[in-house]
Design goal:
By secondary structure, the protein is an alpha/beta fold. Helix content is 33%, strand content 20%. It starts with 5 loop residues before the first strand and ends with a strand.
Length: 418
């Protein structure tokens, strides 16, 4: 069977800024940080960390209380993003007379229902309770989000979850893309969600010494990818979803097409659990270009993984310089994690949306908190986007996701001709 073109007909997210897609991209283009200071009342050791949350998100309002009560927060965020993407695609939530037995879901999460299990520990050990809620298992299971999405939208095809640390939702999107391109599924809903504000999770990341420190005054500028004075990543919660659809089907029904997904490459460094490797990232980038049928010169923007860790940022820049050679100095690169934080299993999905919107709007968001004066010399040699660029001709772009465990995933997108 000949490969199918794959259209992106729906985009949806639960944004830390609280608005819709347009508001999200406007805030990114303005370089506006969503990072705030999180201070808990946990005793004897309260959490005091920079964090990106979604304070405007009301799961009962978004989903209805009966449905929301059946979900951990990560699944609530995912379901709300999925509904938004589905509505954006102009698809009815009820199947009606149309069979959806081959429509599917591919979802990413790094943590799943960690909050449900943490609540269980608190109930048992702090409150002295003898029993947990009978919903604890279904709240906490990693495939809860994709299961609920399949049920609510009547999708009878594959329903799978991918847990690949920071690359979870990028891989989920790539695998969904492959199914539509092969003709196995005419429509796939894909994306990711995570809610990493569990006390134990935050303390675990602190122990790795990769989290940026901050207080109430400095939180907004805590995440500084590629900067010489960067101190580490900032965790965040959220959900992001895309509807991928057979191109001919989308055109036939008159759907609005945000962009086209054209390539996907994934591999493993197979060398270290937490230390990234340039060679593996280079292989993933080359694989994506080959899969998309694109040359290095066809890429006009890269949304970098850019976590603001001391070791990770220079490795990614070295990989880009290896793949793009002399062109790297003219290749715009930015890391939007500087504004929306690191959403772990949802990171690849929210950054894919940012990349698709950049192509659609012909505008590039910046790496916030970065300027020529504080650029790490080890991260030089590419065209860093210090401030937003508008009206730039963007044909194709890449979105990078490089995870603990050495798992690498790169997605390639192409703009729709205006």
């Amino acid at each position: 069977m000949n490969p199918r073109r794959v259209a992106i007909t729906g985009l949806g997210l639960v944004s830390p800024y609280g608005g819709d897609l347009t508001d999200f991209f406007v805030r990114l283009a303005a370089g506006e940080s969503a990072v705030r200071h999180l201070l808990t009342d946990d005793r004897p050791r309260p959490l005091s960390i920079p964090f990106v949350d979604c304070p405007a998100f009301d799961p009962d309002a978004a989903l209805g209380k009966p449905l929301a009560s059946m979900m951990d927060r990560f699944a609530q965020l995912g379901m709300a993003a999925a509904f938004a993407a589905w509505d954006d695609a102009g698809l009815p939530r009820a199947a009606g007379g149309e069979s959806r037995d081959d429509w599917g879901v591919s979802w990413g999460t790094a943590l799943g229902g960690t909050l449900a299990y943490e609540k269980g520990y608190r109930d048992l050990w702090q409150k002295g309770r003898d029993r947990l809620s009978p919903l604890t298992v279904v709240l906490g299971m990693n495939n809860a989000a994709n299961a609920h999405i399949s049920i609510q939208l009547g999708l009878g095809g594959v329903s799978m979850s991918h847990t690949v640390a920071c690359a979870s939702s990028a891989i989920a999107i790539g695998e969904a893309f492959r199914r539509v391109r092969s003709g196995e599924a005419p429509v796939m809903l894909t994306g990711g969600s995570d809610a990493p504000q569990a006390y134990g999770v935050a303390r675990a990341w602190e122990a790795l010494r990769v989290m940026a420190p901050a207080d109430a005054d400095s939180a907004a500028s805590a995440c500084r990818p590629f900067a010489a004075d960067r101190r580490g990543l900032v965790l965040g919660e959220g959900g992001a979803a895309l509807v991928l659809e057979d191109w001919d089907r989308a055109v036939a029904r008159g759907a609005r097409i945000h962009g086209e997904i054209v390539g996907y490459g994934t591999n493993c460094d197979h060398s270290h659990l937490v230390r990234p490797e340039t060679a593996g990232q280079v292989r993933a980038l080359h694989a994506t270009l080959a899969d998309a049928g694109l040359a290095a010169g066809d890429i006009d923007y890269i949304n970098a993984h850019g976590t603001a860790t001391a070791e990770g940022d220079p490795v990614e820049i070295a990989a880009l310089k290896s793949v793009f050679g002399e062109r790297a100095t003219r290749l715009p690169v930015s890391a939007t994690k500087s504004m929306h934080g690191h959403l772990l299993g949802a990171a690849g999905a929210i950054e894919a949306i940012a990349t698709v919107l950049a192509l659609r709007e012909q505008a590039i968001p910046p790496t916030a908190q970065l300027n020529p004066d504080n650029l790490d010399p080890a991260c030089s040699g590419i065209d860093h986007v210090f401030s937003s660029r508008h009206g730039v001709p963007l044909r194709a772009a890449l979105s990078n996701s490089f995870a603990f465990g050495g798992s690498n995933a790169v997605l390639a997108f192409r703009a729709v001709a205006q």
